[in-house]
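Repro:
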Amino acid sequence: MNIEVVGRIRPSIRAEGPESLVIQGQSIAAKTGGLFARLTNLHRKDSGTYDVYKNSVDDLLDLHMAGFNVCLLVMGESESGKTYTIQGESTHNAGLVPLILDYLFTKLAGEQYMKDTRVRRQNPRVSMSMVEVYNELVKDLLQVPGGGGAYLDLHETAEKGVHVKNCSKSFLRDATDGKTQFRQGMARKTEASTDFGPAARHAATIIHIDLEMLVGENPKPNLSRFTVVELPGLEKLNEDAAILRQREGPTLSKALIGLNSLVTLLAGNPYADRVISYSDSKLTQLLREELGGNCKTRALLNIKPQSDPNTFSAIVQFTTKLSQVKNFPIINDSYAQELITQYRARIIDLRQQSGVGPAPMAQISNLNDVKETIRQLEVENLKLKDENERLKTRLDGMQNKFGSMAHTKTDLSQQLLMTEEEKLKVSQSLVEMQIENNKIREEAEATKFELTNKILMLTNNLMEAENDRDKHHKSARNAREKLQEMEKERKDLADEYVVLKTNYLALVREHEKETKRNDELSIELLNLVNAKAALMKQIHALSDSDPGVGDPEAEVSRVKAFVIKNSTGKVKADEILGSQTDRSQVENTLFNNKRRYERDMERMKKEHGDDRQKLEAKMNAVQKELQESRNLARERQRRLAELNAALIVARGEKEQLELQLNRLQHKVKDLGEDYRGRLIKYVEDIAEFVDKNNAGPEGRNSGRMREYVENMHKDISRSHKEREEQLSLAAQQYRESKRTLLHKYEELLIHYRNLRLQCEERGLDDIDMGPDETELKLSDSEINSSNLREITRLKGEVNRLRQTLENYKNKYGVSEEDDIRMKPGEKPAETWAALRKQLREYTLNTQKDLEEERAKLMSENIVLKEQLKESQDYIDHHLVRYKQEIVKLRKMLGYDTDGSPVLGAPTYRKGRRK
C-alpha cells in the first residue's frame, strides 16, 4: 500500500505578491513548464482545516479505531502553514490534532460504535506522547521543564521496537484533556534561533495517539497508534548535502538529509524483501514503522502561493519518491503484537550474536558516523602512504649519498625490511578482517531477509487462519442457535403431546366406563323386561284374558326401542319442540296484551292530545336548539383545534427562528471578537512599525498614521457599540414580552371575574366555579392562554340550555315515566348523561392542552430569563474589560481617555515578537 500525498495551498498574506502556481486538476507546479506534483487530493486556498480533516484524515481515524497503525506526515516549506494546520488558532479554527481528538472521543462514546452486536468492544483507553527532534537531540514535550533530564536517548526493545527511552505518556480522560496537553506540549517547543534561522525550521515534532481496546474474544487489547509528524522545512532539499554539513554543521540538517536518503532507498525498492538501513538520523529511526513498515501513511504537503521554482522542483521530486514508498499495514491484535515481538527479539539476538548489537544507540549513533570515521581513516592512511613514499625517496637518496656506508648500516636496513614486512602483515590482517566483516554483514542481511519473508508468510497464514476461524465460529454459532430453537420446539411438542395423550387416555377410560355401565344397565333392563313379560304371559295364561290387552311382546318392543334411543344419545326434534297448539296459545296471549296496550295508548292520546302536541313541539324546538348548540360547539372545537395546530406550527417556527437567531448572534459575537482582536493586532503591528522606523522623518507620515489609527479605534468602538446595542435590544424584547404576558394575565383575570358574577346571578350552583379570585396569584406557573375564555363561554351556554329544559319540565310536569312516551327508543336522561360525558371529556382534554401550553410557556420564560442573565453578565463584565483595553491602547499610542493626543507623551515601543 503506497503512501498517499495530498496538498493544501496556503492563502496569500499581505505583501506576499500574486500567486504563481500552475494548477491542472489535482496536479500543481511552481511555474509554467515546471515539474508537476501528482497529488491524490488538492485543497485550494478557500478550504478550511475542517475540510482537510473531513476529506483526508477522517478515514485514517476510522482505520485507527479498527486496529491499524496510521500516520499523517505534515510537510512543506517553512512558513507554509504546517504548524497552523496541526495546531490551529482557536476553538473555531481548530487544527487537525484537536479535531482528531474530538472525533475520536465522540465516536468512542457513540452507541453505534461501542454497542455493535457484530463485534464486542469494551474498555477503550487513549494515551498521548509528544517528542521533538532538533539538532539530533530528542526532547519530551509533555515533560514539565525542570522535572527530569533535558534530552532523552533512543532505545530498542522487542516489545516497543525503536522508541524514546523514559518518554512521558499521558492517559486522556476526554477530548478537552487531550487538547490541553497538546497545547502545553506545543508551547514547550524549542524557540532558540541560530545563524541559519529559528529552530522551528530544523525541528521535527512527533505526536503519538495510542488506543487500547478489547475487541471480540481476544485475550489482550488491540494496540493501534495514530502518529502525526511535522517535518522540518523542505526548502533545503535544493542544496547539496555536503555543503549543508560544512556550512551548518553535521547535526543541524541531519534529520532532513537522512529522511531524503531513506525515502530514495525505499522508493527504489518497493518489494517486501528489501533491507534498508534507518540509522541515518534519529528521526528516521523513530519513523521506522511509518515509512515502509506496519502503518497506513498519508502525507499532507503544505504549499506557499509564491514559491521559488527550484525549491519547489526539489520538493516535487521528494514528494514523487515519497508516493512510491510501499507500506504493509496489518491489524494490531494480540496475536500480531506477540508475533512481531517474537521476531524483534530474534533479530536483536542475531545482532548480538553477529557482533553488531545491541550497543546503545546513543553510543553507536548511525551509519553516517561510521562512514565518516572510515573516510577519515582512509584520508589518514593516504597521508601515511604519501609520507611513507617521501621517506622511501629520502631513504634512497641517503643510500645513494652514503653508499659507502651501506655495509656499516646493514642492521638498519634489516630493521627497515622487518618494518616493511610487519606493515605488510598488518595490512594483510586488516584486509582479512574487512573481508570477514563483510561476510558477517552479508550473512546478517541474508538472515534478516529470510526472517522478513517468514514474517510475511506467517502473517498471511495468520490472516487466512483468522478468516477461517471467523467463518467456522459464525457457522457454529448459527448451528447452535438453530439447534437451540429445534430443541425448544421439540420440548414444546413433547409437552403438548404428553398433555393430549393424558387427556385422551382419561377420556377413553371415562368412555369405556360409561359404555360398560350403559351396557350393564341395558342388559339389566332387558332382563327385567323379559322377566316382566314372562310374568305377564303367565298371568294371561292363568286368567285366560284377551291376548290383545297388555301384550307382553309390545311392552318388550317399547322398552327395547327406549333402550336403543337412549344408547344412541339422539333425541328427535319433535320431542323437543312444543306443539302447534301451545305456540298458537302463547301467540294469542301476547297479541291480546299488545292490543290492550294499544287501546290504552289511544285512550290516553285522546285525553292528553293537545298537551302532548304542545310539549312535543317545545321538545322539538329544544332538541333543535340543542342540536344547533352541539353543531356550534363542534364548529368551535374544530376552529380551536385548527387554531391550536396553527399555534403549534407557529411556535415551532418561532423556536427555530429564535434558535437560528441565537446561533447567528453567537456567530456575530465570535466574528466581532475576532474582528476586534485583528484590529488590536493591526494597531500593535503599526506601533511596532512606527517604533522601528521612528529614526526617519515624521512630518507627513505622522498625521496619516494618526488618522489611520484613529479610524481603527473608531472601528473598535463601533463594534463594541453594536454588541451593546444587540444585547440591549434583546433585553428590551424580553421585557416587552414579559409586559405583554402580564397584560394578558390581567385580562384573563378580569374575564374570570365577570364569568363568576354571571354564573352567580343565574343561580348555577351545581357547576364547579373553581377557586376564588383572591386565591389566584400572579405567578409564572399559572399563566393560561386566551382559549379558556371561549371554553368557559361554551360551558355557560350548555348550562343555560340545561336550565331552560329543567324549567320546561317543571312547568309542564313531565317526569321520568312520561319521558318514555315522548319518543320511542330515546330517553332524555341517557341523552343528558352522554352530553355530560362529552362535556367532561372535552373539559379534561382542554385542561390537558392548557397544562401543556402552560408548561411550555414556563420553559420559554426560564430560557428568556437565562438569556437575560447571560446578557447582563456580558454587559457587566466584558464591557468594562473592553473599555479598559481601549484606554490602554490609547495610552500606548499617546492619547488620553477622551481620544485627544497628549503632547510630550512617551512613545510606546513594543519588543520583538517571536
